[in-house]
Every structure is written in structure tokens, then in C-alpha cells.
Amino acid sequence: MDEKIKIIYEDADLMVIDKPGGLVVTNEGRTSKELTLEDWLKKERPNSLERAGIVHRLDKGTSGLILVAKTPEALDYLKKQFKSRKVKKKYIALICGDLPREGGMKVPIGRNKFSFGKFGVDVDGKSAETRFVLISKYKKNNKIYSLVEIDLLTGRTHQIRVHFSNLRWPLVGDVLYSGEPFDPPAGRAGKLRASASRPFLHSHEISFVHPNGKTVLFESALPIELNEILKGYEKEG
User: Fold this and answer.
1) Is 193 a residue whose pLDDT tops 60?
2) What's the rounded Cα separation, in Å, for the pair 93 and 149?
């Protein structure tokens, strides 16, 4: 696990971590003995903060950027930014469908009343808004796929996955929300993520106001296994 977790920035107040897909973020609600990012932080950067200073979460299957506080003051400061929606997060996803150049969804999300661990569009749920822009289109087996950059304006559980699936545009690899599985990547990437059971979803950009008052932005490249998956599709145009 150690070589897969990358600290891409660190100072006295905070860290920005690049999380691999397949790693659970916190120990809250954990039902198995699998190691989490919280476990790793307690070992590598021990502190007395709640959840080892983890400010927000990503789904287990989602890779990308996680913000971690190192002091109580920084944790409180960063949490307030998330609550006031001042933190900007962008994702890259491969979608099953022929999407327009840009678009958005603004529909509430709540827990699925019939399937544990699943969420869905719910008029009585919490407000949620997602926007996207098209990066490029791909083709495979006579189907069209769209690689998009997603601007997450709210942070509901499974928000991106639910919003796109609701429009019959599920994420590639997201079998929980009707997305088709992708073939395991070959070679070294296949060994890294042999099951290929995760959604094609990567948190590639985060910006926020640092406790020092300056606005900062961090980026993460698409991980090896997702790049290898993408090579299996033919780029259009």
C-alpha cells in the first residue's frame, strides 16, 4: 500500500494526497479488516486529529486528490471551506454515452430505500449539482463513449455516479449504477488493479484557500491503470 499512496504536497498545516483507486478513506463504518488511508496516516503521520486529519472523502473506487489537515486550526479552517462550498474539485470520467459539449444536472440525491449502500435521485434528498465539459469522444464495439471533466458543485455521496446514471449515462466500470465493466488492463497496470472493478473516475484537481490566505491549486494525472483502460478505446476525430 505504501508505494501507491503519494503525498504530492506537504507543509506545516496540511498535506495533499493522491489516493489510489480501491483504497477506503476512513475507518468510519468499516466492516472488514482492510487497511484504509486513515490507517496509513496514523502510521506515517501520527496525530490526535479526528480521522487523522482527513478533511473530506472519495469513494473507495475513486482515485485522486484528498486534503489532509495537520493541525486542529487547519482542520477547522478547511472544513468550513467545504461547508461553504469554497473548495473547487474537478474530476475526469469515462461515460457510456454520446454526451454534448457541456451540460449539467441539478437534482437531489438520497439513499436508495431498496438497496443498501446505494444512492439515487430523490425529491426528498439533499440538493446536488454537477456540471461537465466534454474532453474527447471514443468508440468501441460500435458504441460511443465520452471522456469528460466534471465540476462538482456539491459533495453528496456517489453524486457523480448517480447523476450520470440517472440520465442513462453510467460511468464505465461502475457496475453498481449500471455501468459496463471494462477489461482488465494488460501488463504492469493489470497487476496494479487486476480486478478492474472500479468506476473510471479520478479526482484530478482541487483548489482552496490555504490557511496562509493564498488560493492554491493542485493537480493529479490520470493513473496508470485508467490510462491503460483508455488505450482500449478508439479516439474519435
Assistant:
1) no
2) 7
Fold of domain 2-235: Pseudouridine synthase (3.30.2350)
Task: Using CA atoms of 93, 170, 86, 68 in order, give the dihedral in degrees to the nearest 10.
Answer: -60
The active-site residue, picked from 59, 76, 122, 183, is: 59
Per the annotation, the verdict on 124 as an active-site residue is: no
- Rounded Cα distance between 24 and 217, Å, is 24
- Residue 65: closest CA among 19, 4, 9: 19
Show contacts of 35-38: CB within 8 Å, 24+ apart. 35/1, 37/5, 37/66
CA–CA gap between residue 42 and residue 35 (Å, rounded):
11
Annotate 122-172 with DSSP letters as a single string: -TTSB--EEEEEEEEEEEETTEEEEEEEEEESS--TTHHHHHHHHTT-PBT
Per-residue pLDDT of 2-56, as tens digits, reads 448 999 999 999 999 999 999 999 998 666 688 899 999 999 999 999 999 999 9
Could you tell me the pLDDT band of residue 184, with boundaries at 50, 70 and 90? low
**This prediction's pTM:** 0.90
Kindly list the domain boundaries of the chain, sorted by start residue.
2-235
| CB-facing half-sphere around the CA of 4: CA atoms within 13 A | 20
